[in-house]
Amino acid sequence: MDTSAIAQFVPLILIFGIMYFLLIRPQQKKVKEHQKMVAALRRGDQIVTQGGIIGKVAKVKENNEVDVEIAEGVKVRVVQSTITQVLSKTEPAES
């Protein structure tokens, strides 16, 4: 390969590098933070779902499910990945 062929690939490599640092890397970081937030859910945490429902975690179940109390005596089962935000955390119970 001569230098002109290499010079043609340099802009493509630069564009990919810029795309990686501006789009791909921040998205991966955001996904990791969301997974960490969902893994730290506990009973009593007040959460917001993707559908805009605000409720309190009643029980963290297996299979990535959470029981959320949205009104007194009204509980819904929600998939953990649909929880977008934790409004207030409860303190861990002292043993």
UniProtKB/TrEMBL annotation:
Keywords: Cell membrane, Membrane, Protein transport, Translocation, Transmembrane, Transmembrane helix, Transport. It is a single-pass membrane protein. It is found in: Cell membrane. SMART domains: YajC. One of its GO terms (biological process) is protein transport. Part of the SecDF-YidC-YajC translocase complex. The SecDF-YidC-YajC translocase forms a supercomplex with SecYEG, called the holo-translocon (HTL). This is Sec translocon accessory complex subunit YajC.
